[in-house]
Amino acid sequence: MSFGGPILLTLQLAGVTTVILLVIAMPIAWWLANTTSRFKPFIEALTALPLVLPPTVLGFYLLILMSPNSPVGAFWVRLTGDTLTFNFAGLVVASVFYSLPFAVQPMQTAFQSVGRGMMEAASTLGARPLDAFRSVALPLAKRGVLTAAVLSFAHTVGEFGVVLMVGGNIPGRTRVISIEVYSAVETLDYTTAHYLSGGLLVFSFVVLSLVYLMNQRGVRAGG
Questions:
Q1: Which residues, 6 or more positions from 38, have their beta carbon under 8 angstroms from its beta carbon?
Q2: Separation in Å, CA 97 to CA 43, 114, 115
Q3: Maximum Cα interatomic distance, the chain, rounded to a whole number of Å
Q4: Do 161 and 50 form a contact (C-beta atoms < 8 A)?
Q5: pLDDT tens, 71-127?
Q6: The whole model's pTM is what?
Q7: With respect to CATH, is domain 4-222 assigned 1.10.3720.10?
Q8: What is the mean pLDDT of residues 3-15?
Q9: Which element (helix H / strand E) includes 91?
Q10: Please, what sign has the CA dihedral across residues 171, 173, 178, 179?
Protein backbone atom coordinates (compact mmCIF):
# COMPACT_ATOMS: atom_id res chain seq x y z
CA MET A 1 0.00 0.00 0.00
CA SER A 2 1.81 3.09 -1.27
CA PHE A 3 0.37 6.59 -1.14
CA GLY A 4 3.62 8.38 -1.91
CA GLY A 5 2.78 9.42 -5.46
CA PRO A 6 -0.60 11.08 -4.82
CA ILE A 7 0.60 12.68 -1.57
CA LEU A 8 3.73 14.13 -3.15
CA LEU A 9 1.78 15.39 -6.16
CA THR A 10 -0.83 16.98 -3.90
CA LEU A 11 1.80 18.75 -1.80
CA GLN A 12 3.54 20.02 -4.92
CA LEU A 13 0.26 21.29 -6.33
CA ALA A 14 -0.71 22.98 -3.07
CA GLY A 15 2.71 24.58 -2.64
CA VAL A 16 2.95 25.98 -6.17
CA THR A 17 -0.67 27.17 -6.07
CA THR A 18 -0.19 28.94 -2.73
CA VAL A 19 2.88 30.84 -3.92
CA ILE A 20 1.13 31.95 -7.13
CA LEU A 21 -2.00 32.92 -5.22
CA LEU A 22 -0.10 35.13 -2.78
CA VAL A 23 1.53 36.96 -5.68
CA ILE A 24 -1.76 37.40 -7.56
CA ALA A 25 -4.18 37.90 -4.67
CA MET A 26 -2.17 40.43 -2.65
CA PRO A 27 -2.54 43.36 -5.10
CA ILE A 28 -6.19 42.43 -5.65
CA ALA A 29 -6.84 42.40 -1.90
CA TRP A 30 -5.00 45.69 -1.45
CA TRP A 31 -7.02 47.34 -4.19
CA LEU A 32 -10.30 46.03 -2.81
CA ALA A 33 -9.39 47.21 0.69
CA ASN A 34 -8.64 50.76 -0.42
CA THR A 35 -10.60 51.52 -3.55
CA THR A 36 -13.73 53.65 -3.76
CA SER A 37 -14.46 52.52 -7.30
CA ARG A 38 -18.06 51.73 -8.19
CA PHE A 39 -16.79 48.51 -9.75
CA LYS A 40 -15.59 47.17 -6.39
CA PRO A 41 -18.73 45.05 -5.68
CA PHE A 42 -18.42 43.39 -9.08
CA ILE A 43 -14.73 42.58 -8.59
CA GLU A 44 -15.51 41.22 -5.12
CA ALA A 45 -18.27 39.07 -6.57
CA LEU A 46 -15.95 37.82 -9.31
CA THR A 47 -13.22 36.81 -6.87
CA ALA A 48 -15.76 35.12 -4.56
CA LEU A 49 -17.52 33.26 -7.38
CA PRO A 50 -15.68 29.94 -6.75
CA LEU A 51 -17.24 29.84 -3.27
CA VAL A 52 -20.77 29.39 -4.67
CA LEU A 53 -20.13 27.98 -8.14
CA PRO A 54 -20.23 24.16 -8.34
CA PRO A 55 -16.67 22.87 -8.87
CA THR A 56 -17.78 20.85 -11.89
CA VAL A 57 -19.16 23.98 -13.55
CA LEU A 58 -15.93 25.91 -12.94
CA GLY A 59 -13.95 22.87 -14.07
CA PHE A 60 -15.99 22.56 -17.24
CA TYR A 61 -15.37 26.16 -18.31
CA LEU A 62 -11.69 25.90 -17.41
CA LEU A 63 -11.51 22.72 -19.46
CA ILE A 64 -12.93 24.60 -22.45
CA LEU A 65 -10.62 27.57 -21.83
CA MET A 66 -7.49 25.42 -21.66
CA SER A 67 -8.31 22.90 -24.39
CA PRO A 68 -5.91 22.78 -27.37
CA ASN A 69 -8.70 24.21 -29.54
CA SER A 70 -8.88 27.45 -27.53
CA PRO A 71 -6.44 30.37 -28.00
CA VAL A 72 -5.05 29.87 -24.48
CA GLY A 73 -4.60 26.12 -24.87
CA ALA A 74 -3.18 26.42 -28.37
CA PHE A 75 -0.66 29.02 -27.20
CA TRP A 76 0.47 26.72 -24.39
CA VAL A 77 0.91 23.82 -26.82
CA ARG A 78 3.05 25.99 -29.11
CA LEU A 79 5.06 27.20 -26.11
CA THR A 80 5.68 23.90 -24.34
CA GLY A 81 4.70 21.16 -26.77
CA ASP A 82 2.21 19.78 -24.24
CA THR A 83 -1.41 20.46 -23.37
CA LEU A 84 -2.67 22.36 -20.35
CA THR A 85 -5.50 19.91 -19.85
CA PHE A 86 -4.74 16.55 -18.23
CA ASN A 87 -1.42 17.93 -17.09
CA PHE A 88 0.08 19.27 -13.85
CA ALA A 89 0.22 22.81 -15.26
CA GLY A 90 -3.52 22.68 -15.89
CA LEU A 91 -4.11 21.57 -12.31
CA VAL A 92 -2.17 24.61 -11.10
CA VAL A 93 -4.23 26.99 -13.24
CA ALA A 94 -7.49 25.41 -12.09
CA SER A 95 -6.39 25.45 -8.44
CA VAL A 96 -5.45 29.14 -8.62
CA PHE A 97 -8.92 30.03 -9.89
CA TYR A 98 -10.70 27.74 -7.43
CA SER A 99 -8.78 28.86 -4.32
CA LEU A 100 -8.62 32.57 -5.18
CA PRO A 101 -11.23 33.71 -2.60
CA PHE A 102 -9.38 31.88 0.17
CA ALA A 103 -6.36 34.08 -0.55
CA VAL A 104 -8.08 37.37 -1.34
CA GLN A 105 -10.63 37.63 1.46
CA PRO A 106 -8.34 37.18 4.51
CA MET A 107 -5.82 39.64 3.10
CA GLN A 108 -8.52 42.15 2.17
CA THR A 109 -9.85 42.05 5.73
CA ALA A 110 -6.34 42.45 7.13
CA PHE A 111 -5.54 45.39 4.85
CA GLN A 112 -8.82 47.08 5.76
CA SER A 113 -7.90 46.83 9.45
CA VAL A 114 -4.65 48.71 8.80
CA GLY A 115 -6.59 51.84 7.90
CA ARG A 116 -5.56 54.81 5.82
CA GLY A 117 -4.18 56.74 8.77
CA MET A 118 -1.04 54.63 9.05
CA MET A 119 -0.36 54.87 5.32
CA GLU A 120 -0.91 58.64 5.32
CA ALA A 121 1.44 59.00 8.27
CA ALA A 122 4.11 57.05 6.40
CA SER A 123 3.53 59.24 3.34
CA THR A 124 4.03 62.43 5.35
CA LEU A 125 7.37 61.03 6.51
CA GLY A 126 8.48 60.72 2.90
CA ALA A 127 7.77 57.06 2.25
CA ARG A 128 6.75 56.15 -1.27
CA PRO A 129 3.54 54.08 -1.67
CA LEU A 130 5.44 50.83 -2.27
CA ASP A 131 7.82 51.50 0.62
CA ALA A 132 4.89 52.32 2.91
CA PHE A 133 3.16 49.11 1.86
CA ARG A 134 6.22 46.97 2.57
CA SER A 135 7.24 48.66 5.82
CA VAL A 136 3.83 49.50 7.32
CA ALA A 137 0.84 47.73 5.79
CA LEU A 138 2.40 44.32 5.19
CA PRO A 139 3.80 43.85 8.72
CA LEU A 140 0.50 44.96 10.26
CA ALA A 141 -1.45 42.59 8.00
CA LYS A 142 0.88 39.61 8.42
CA ARG A 143 -1.74 37.50 10.22
CA GLY A 144 -4.12 37.94 7.31
CA VAL A 145 -1.40 37.03 4.83
CA LEU A 146 -0.47 33.96 6.84
CA THR A 147 -4.13 32.95 7.11
CA ALA A 148 -4.51 33.35 3.35
CA ALA A 149 -1.48 31.14 2.73
CA VAL A 150 -2.64 28.41 5.12
CA LEU A 151 -6.22 28.36 3.83
CA SER A 152 -5.10 28.39 0.20
CA PHE A 153 -2.76 25.47 0.82
CA ALA A 154 -5.37 23.47 2.73
CA HIS A 155 -8.13 24.18 0.23
CA THR A 156 -5.94 23.05 -2.65
CA VAL A 157 -5.10 19.82 -0.83
CA GLY A 158 -8.82 19.04 -0.57
CA GLU A 159 -9.81 19.87 -4.16
CA PHE A 160 -11.67 17.24 -6.15
CA GLY A 161 -14.24 18.34 -8.73
CA VAL A 162 -12.16 21.00 -10.45
CA VAL A 163 -8.98 18.94 -10.69
CA LEU A 164 -10.90 15.89 -11.88
CA MET A 165 -12.55 17.87 -14.68
CA VAL A 166 -9.32 19.55 -15.80
CA GLY A 167 -6.75 16.86 -15.05
CA GLY A 168 -8.63 13.59 -15.16
CA ASN A 169 -7.26 10.61 -13.28
CA ILE A 170 -3.77 9.92 -14.60
CA PRO A 171 -1.46 8.11 -12.13
CA GLY A 172 1.75 10.01 -11.46
CA ARG A 173 0.54 13.02 -13.41
CA THR A 174 -2.82 14.30 -12.17
CA ARG A 175 -3.98 11.78 -9.55
CA VAL A 176 -3.94 13.78 -6.32
CA ILE A 177 -5.11 12.48 -2.92
CA SER A 178 -8.79 13.32 -3.36
CA ILE A 179 -8.90 11.53 -6.72
CA GLU A 180 -7.03 8.58 -5.23
CA VAL A 181 -9.79 8.32 -2.61
CA TYR A 182 -12.41 8.39 -5.37
CA SER A 183 -10.55 5.68 -7.32
CA ALA A 184 -10.21 3.53 -4.20
CA VAL A 185 -13.95 3.72 -3.49
CA GLU A 186 -14.74 2.88 -7.11
CA THR A 187 -12.66 -0.29 -6.83
CA LEU A 188 -14.06 -1.10 -3.36
CA ASP A 189 -10.63 -0.61 -1.80
CA TYR A 190 -12.06 0.85 1.38
CA THR A 191 -8.84 0.37 3.34
CA THR A 192 -6.98 2.82 1.12
CA ALA A 193 -9.96 5.16 1.14
CA HIS A 194 -10.07 5.09 4.95
CA TYR A 195 -6.37 5.85 5.32
CA LEU A 196 -6.37 8.75 2.88
CA SER A 197 -9.73 10.17 4.00
CA GLY A 198 -8.71 9.96 7.64
CA GLY A 199 -5.45 11.75 6.86
CA LEU A 200 -7.28 14.54 5.06
CA LEU A 201 -9.78 14.82 7.92
CA VAL A 202 -7.04 15.19 10.53
CA PHE A 203 -5.09 17.60 8.33
CA SER A 204 -8.15 19.80 7.77
CA PHE A 205 -9.01 19.88 11.47
CA VAL A 206 -5.45 20.80 12.46
CA VAL A 207 -5.23 23.55 9.84
CA LEU A 208 -8.55 25.12 10.85
CA SER A 209 -7.65 24.89 14.54
CA LEU A 210 -4.36 26.69 13.90
CA VAL A 211 -6.12 29.41 11.91
CA TYR A 212 -8.71 30.00 14.64
CA LEU A 213 -6.07 29.96 17.38
CA MET A 214 -3.96 32.44 15.45
CA ASN A 215 -6.91 34.75 14.91
CA GLN A 216 -7.94 34.48 18.55
CA ARG A 217 -4.45 35.47 19.69
CA GLY A 218 -4.54 38.35 17.23
CA VAL A 219 -7.82 39.61 18.71
CA ARG A 220 -6.42 39.36 22.23
CA ALA A 221 -3.25 41.17 21.23
CA GLY A 222 -5.28 43.87 19.52
CA GLY A 223 -7.47 44.20 22.57
A1: none
A2: 14, 27, 28
A3: 67
A4: no
A5: 999 999 999 999 999 999 999 999 999 999 999 999 999 998 887 766 667 666 666
A6: 0.88
A7: yes
A8: 89
A9: helix 88-114
A10: negative
Question: What per-residue string of b and e applies to 148-170 under the rule 16 or more CB within 10 Å gives b?
Answer: bbbbbbbbbbbbbbbbbbbbbbe
Contact indicator for 157, 16 with CB cutoff of 8 Å: no
pLDDT of residue 133: 79
Domain range summary for the chain, segments of one domain joined by +: 4-222
Burial of 1 (0-12, 13-18, 19+ CB in 10 A): exposed
C-alpha angle 180/182/184, rounded to 5°? 70
Contact by Cβ (8 Å): 112, 35:
no
3-state secondary structure string across 22-56: HHHHHHHHHHHHHCCCCCHHHHHHHHHHHHHCCHH
